[in-house]
Amino acid sequence: MENERKLTIARAMAEAVAQEMRVDPSVFVMGEDIAELGGVYGNTRGLLDEFGKDRIRDTPISETAFIGAAVGAAQDGMRPVVELMFVDFFGVCFDAIYNLMAKNIYFSGGNFKVPMVLMTSTGGGYSDGGQHSQCVYGTFAHLPGMKVVCPSNAYDAKGLMTAAIRDDSPVIYMFHKGLQGMGWLGTEPGANVHVPEEAYEVEIGKAAIVREGGDVTIVSLAQGVHHALKAAKTLEADGISAEVVDLRSLVPLDRETVLKSVAKTGRLIVVDEDYHSYGVTGEIIATVAEHDLAALKAPPRRIAFPDVPIPFARVMEQYCLPNPDKIVAAAREICPAGAPAA
Amino acid sequence: MENERKLTIARAMAEAVAQEMRVDPSVFVMGEDIAELGGVYGNTRGLLDEFGKDRIRDTPISETAFIGAAVGAAQDGMRPVVELMFVDFFGVCFDAIYNLMAKNIYFSGGNFKVPMVLMTSTGGGYSDGGQHSQCVYGTFAHLPGMKVVCPSNAYDAKGLMTAAIRDDSPVIYMFHKGLQGMGWLGTEPGANVHVPEEAYEVEIGKAAIVREGGDVTIVSLAQGVHHALKAAKTLEADGISAEVVDLRSLVPLDRETVLKSVAKTGRLIVVDEDYHSYGVTGEIIATVAEHDLAALKAPPRRIAFPDVPIPFARVMEQYCLPNPDKIVAAAREICPAGAPAA
Amino acid sequence: MAPSKETLGWMYRTMVTSRRYENAIEKIYLEGKTPVFNMARGPIPGEMHLSNGQEPVAVGVCAHLKPEDIVTATHRPHHQAIAKGVDLDRMTAEIFGKATGLSGGRGGHMHLFDADVNFACSGIIAQGMGPAVGGALSRKMQGKPGVAVAFIGESAANQGAFHEAMNLAAVWKLPMICVIEDNAWGISVAKRTSTSVEHNHVRAASYGIPGHYVSGNDPWKIYEVAGEAIARARAGEGPTLIEAETYRLAGHFMGDTEGYRPKGEKQALFERDPIPAMRKRLEAEGTFTAAELDGLEAEAAAAVDAAIRFARESADPKPEDALTAVFA
Amino acid sequence: MAPSKETLGWMYRTMVTSRRYENAIEKIYLEGKTPVFNMARGPIPGEMHLSNGQEPVAVGVCAHLKPEDIVTATHRPHHQAIAKGVDLDRMTAEIFGKATGLSGGRGGHMHLFDADVNFACSGIIAQGMGPAVGGALSRKMQGKPGVAVAFIGESAANQGAFHEAMNLAAVWKLPMICVIEDNAWGISVAKRTSTSVEHNHVRAASYGIPGHYVSGNDPWKIYEVAGEAIARARAGEGPTLIEAETYRLAGHFMGDTEGYRPKGEKQALFERDPIPAMRKRLEAEGTFTAAELDGLEAEAAAAVDAAIRFARESADPKPEDALTAVFA
Ligand SMILES: Cc1ncc(C[n+]2csc(CCOP(=O)(O)OP(=O)(O)O)c2C)c(N)n1
Ligand SMILES: Cc1ncc(C[n+]2csc(CCOP(=O)(O)OP(=O)(O)O)c2C)c(N)n1
Ligand SMILES: [Mg+2]
Ligand SMILES: [Mg+2]
Predict the structure, then answer these.
(1) How distant, in Å, are the alpha carbons of C17, C19, C295 from that of C290?
(2) What residues contact A130, with CB distance under 8 A and at least 6 apart?
(3) DSSP-assigned letters across all residues of A63-89
């Protein structure tokens, strides 16, 4: 493509933050190692040089304090973009997130706004052990008062970040380490896509059909979308046409797009790297079952991380993770054998 | 009933703890206001007098420290029973719970045991506002490594507490404030049932059919079970026969009992006081849809707290909470009108 | 820095307002809760934490604050809210869960938010520490005037949030003041069994900032020490930790039978009730005449009566409005 | 309390073991990660935090500990584990993710657990503080001997868990010691930009307990101060806070390009490398001959070689065993 401007998610995120910072002096960034280092995942690279220490602030390892501080600053007219380095660390500061950040708009009857973004990295697959590899999408999505987005590619990453910064409500921005385009965490080429130079928003709460198909709907988010796309390619050769829905946002959840797709295909597979039970996969399946039971021509399937802590050893972790093969196998089980593509 | 010994859940819990403490010197209790005061919800009443300050320890307001300390003590051969006063406070100490307590058995490959009980109160309905009324069952159940139990009556409360204390794995013991039998929080008479004097266990991970019926299965837990039983009575007059399943334990989850019941009734309503999305109701419905889609004669229904922070004002909170009327209405919608009972 | 006559008048009237307010709330809270005490009943359901006895700290500090200054308060917020100038009518309506309340009934007594005077509070111990740091940061970054004061109880100084926030405020030299209301109890747990130091003000050493102890629940002394700290913050010299001795004349919350208190403690506290003591001194020093003080008390009473009336007469919110205002 | 010759020999050998270990791990870690550095590849995937330079703190403290004593360590745990006597073969196999590892490969380098010597660690900053308090409590309640030592980095002293745990240990007067390894950096963030005091040992004042500072990354001095604190704990006199100056000779983790370090810092640190310094002093003071020290180094090398061999030759775990050992 001519004039293509492929960016990594890391660069797309940094670009969105920089563009908003240029036009809005209330936007600033706080977190661990986000200044000099540019963020462990590169998503704040370059910001210190352009905006200086006052607006790009390295913090102590005090997540409760600095996330709480972001809430206070947001209520006072600022628009903090805060980083929780790994989502796995949410346990040390979750009160500031779910009980404070997420509730003060409501508790104040809307008299306080809390325009802040909490960006945090998710995901495993590179053997970082059970306290550095989790997704916990379901945990954040379950508790009311925060929007939750999870981009799967650089275009969405930029547009969702811009929308998140401009939003007057708190947004949890979950970026998957495996999609950041940092070579040292592996690279998913499918995540690096064309990103327009100018600022734009991707609406929070709208899923995307990233591949159309007629036989089975595969719903996923973040890295799972890429697994699904790879599986869909394999299935095509079997004559099974898979539609892939990228949720992009867990809160608000775009139930309509999911329901419409399943109404068309009659079959549903949900793919999530978060833990199996009481999470995203259950919610999506339940949504379809309660709203459009008749549409389901086969039992819905889910492919998620089993309900065990994330093991370190490569063979164990890979055994647990979702992957294209597992999706293909599930699709073959629930789809009637199609005519293999020529 | 002769020789009936009706206890409140509060007394049943205290009795179980006391009985285990008498026979096992490694059992001790820690928490805020659990000694002199006997626990805000009465579930440690009498223990200080019998066991003294060394084994019944009031703590500072330092949940991260004392729950972390319980893990260290449990790994060293003790059996701490710890109280988190309101489950709503989990955010200040969740790392010690989900990333430490819940994972050290696994991280140690089973070489460390973590025999501890974390008891915590849940639930609203008495206008205590959005930071003192939550259930967050789904949050605890979603994350691996901890068993999660939620008794609905004094018999189960005692037996589950005894089983939890004897378990070598960490158990989250969630007791609903509205069922404690403390008059000042209202009283659900159905929770005060006969409790044998001697120690006994209720197996963790087994649901109970608390009412048999043929037309619709109502799955719930804790206070929801009482709503379901009341609804079932009303429905009986309509000629609709409801079976009520009390989950009792969310982890392990007794999927079989649910599936068996729905296989029989063909209809499912799930009732949960926790937030609607990404929680218990979704998990139960998804379980049935994926394992026994054909059994469902009507779309499954859920009655849960909407995805909003819990409002203070009575009329608002009551509007949001599950109640028997909502269950009755849902059942009427999905069940064919039966012959009203004579 | 001694308070002016005008300030003293404001302080006295505000303390009396706060006390009358709590007395009124206490009575109304019990409506519908007798003979059987059930929190869910009556015009004011839920938990109720009264601040009787702790008025001096709130007024001594807030006498130095303007509407633009930020206060984060606790689960026991009425005296702090009144001293900060939160709209009494709408605050009362909020406590009653009415549509005219500060947040239309969504918050309740532990969640009073008034954007006009930059007041917020919360039911989680020490949760206000972070937001106070953030408010102070915001002012510093924006170059706008204003300090942030976090009120906490003495037991809250054992929470991690206290430590993290004090360190952060000190590292960034923010205009933030932490005021510890030391009433010696965290529910039933005595400070000496929960806290490893006799006085929390020594913890300022952990942050390289000034720490002050104010004994005696004395509005004059609190005024003086708070004044210094706030002036220091306004001058860009960074945070201060203030520990003020105070007394909780009521139970932890309503319904508390206070069996944990040593015998005679309550009686002794009432003998040191700061409100009659202040009146006595104001009269003795000739700052105000008895008639003037009666006048201030009457003003206080009128404000409280009006607020209660406003709340009582206001309508309930629409139940379905529970679903609104989740997002901005 | 000066270390005996035997202890000094143990200390030196252990420091060398630790250093050789890290050097070996460093090399193996890079296998499969060149020319493109990808953490997921090679015989040791995931993050890798080396402890080069920090050996004196671990040995100075652990020289006083017995297997029954408890240690909770950090995300940078190898030197601490080796000094505490964790089985080197099984530890190495764990770091390689092998079936013979301490936990069969479920944990990895940040999750080394050895029940035989009461060692645990974690990847969450300051998470070991609570368990150390609990271990100490357990010993006190059971009347069994043993102290608990929590090692943390200097940046961890800004976490809430640090504060809460120190207060709790002090209130309950537990046999617990917190040892802060101050290497001046938390990843790329310099201590002076994250910490409001120059020295963390002053924070002991917040808990009414002794606080000690040990300068110079000096194994003798650390031994002495730790000995006092541990003796005090064993005597039932309660917790101590120790802050030890140390140096991180490597990056925060492997792959760290260390661009944040001021020019010349690394060079200066290497000039103060504690291992050659210790050797020099042991020789100069005539405690050991050069040949004896060579012998200790050879022992260290042999142990490391054997452990690496054990790990390399061990089998992978069965993938499906990932699903086991969730519950006891
Ligand atoms: C994190 C957290 N833990 C526990 C509680 C329950 N709680 C409410 S008030 C209180 C005592 C607070 O004592 P203090 O800070 O001294 O304030 P006071 O009540 O004396 O004004 C406790 C334990 C809570 N609200 N939040
Ligand atoms: C709660 C938490 N926050 C952040 C991190 C990410 N992190 C890992 S190591 C580290 C720096 C720790 O510095 P320090 O405590 O000084 O130990 P050092 O690495 O210097 O040994 C950080 C921020 C974490 N693991 N846990
Ligand atoms: Mg108090
Ligand atoms: Mg460090």
Answers:
(1) 17, 19, 9
(2) A309, A310, A311, A312, B103, B106, B107, D106, D107, D111
(3) HHHHHHHHHHHHHTT-EEEEEEEEGGG
The answer on A303 and A190 residing in a single domain is no
Residue position matching structure tokens 């708070």: C226
Cross-chain Cβ contact C171/D194 below 8 Å: yes
Would strands B6-7 and B193-194 be described as parallel, antiparallel, or unpaired?
A: antiparallel
The catalytically annotated residue of B32, B63, B83, B273 is B63
How far is D328 from C78, CA to CA, in rounded Å?
A: 49
Asked if D40 lies within 8 A of A37 by C-beta distance, the reply is no
C167 Cα–ligand 4 center, Å: 17
Q: List the CATH number of the domain containing C122.
A: 3.40.50.970
Which position has the token pair 């990056």?
D251
Q: How many domains in chain C?
A: 1
Tokens encoding C44: 């004011």
- For residue B15, indicate whether it is catalytic: no
- What's the CATH number where A232 sits? 3.40.50.920
Distance CA(A234)–CA(D181), nearest Å, equals 53
Contact C94, C86 (CB under 8 A): no
Per residue in A170-211, pLDDT (tens digit) is: 999 999 999 999 888 888 999 999 999 999 999 999 999 999
Kindly report, residue by residue over D241-265, the tens digit of the pLDDT: 999 999 999 999 999 999 999 999 9
Protein residue whose Cα sits closest to atom 18 of ligand 1: C153
Q: How many domains does chain B have?
A: 2
pLDDT of residue C169: 99
User: Which ligand has the minimum distance to the alpha carbon of residue A83?
Assistant: 2
As a whole number, the mean pLDDT across chain C is: 98
Q: Where are the beta strands (DSSP E) in D99-175?
A: 119-121, 148-153
Largest CA-CA distance found in chain B, in angstroms, rounded: 63
Gap between the Cα atoms of A268 and A245, Å rounded: 10
CA C320 to centroid of chain Cα atoms:
32
Please, are residues B139 and A91 in contact by the beta-carbon 8 Å criterion?
A: no
Predicted-complex ipTM score: 0.98
Instruction: Give, for ligand 2, the residue of D57, D125, D180, D200 to mutate: max count of ligand atoms closer than 8 Å to Cβ.
Output: D125
| Domain assignment present for D319 | no
CA-CA distance, D257 to A42, in Å (whole number)? Answer: 13
* CA C123 to ligand 1: nearest atom: 25
Q: Answer whether C7 touches D (CB < 8 Å).
A: no
**Of A127, A162, A194, which one is at a domain's C-terminal end?**
A194
Cβ-based neighbours of D199, under 8 Å, separated by 6 or more? D213, D243
pTM: 0.98
Compare CB distances from C159 to D160, D197, D209 and report the shortest one's residue: D160
Contact B76 D168 (CB under 8 A): no
Please tell me whether residues A59 and A170 are part of one structural domain.
Answer: yes
pLDDT of residue A1: 60
**Is the domain of B63 the same as that of B173?**
yes
State which of A194, A226, A242 marks the end of a domain. A194
Predicted confidence (pLDDT) per residue in C31-40, tens digit: 999 889 999 9
Return the beta strands (E) in A99-212 as ranges.
117-122, 147-149, 171-176, 193-194, 208-211
Q: Over the stretch C45-93, which tens digit does the pLDDT of each residue have?
A: 999 999 999 999 999 999 999 999 999 999 999 999 999 999 999 999 9
Domain carrying residue A171: 6-194
Residue C328 lies in a domain: no
Contacts of B295 (CB under 8 A, 6+ apart): B259, B262, B263, B266, B288
C–D CB contacts, 8 A cutoff, strictly below: 70
- pLDDT for C198 beyond 90: yes
Domain containing residue D193: 5-314
Pick out chain B residues at pLDDT < 70.
Answer: 1-2, 338-342
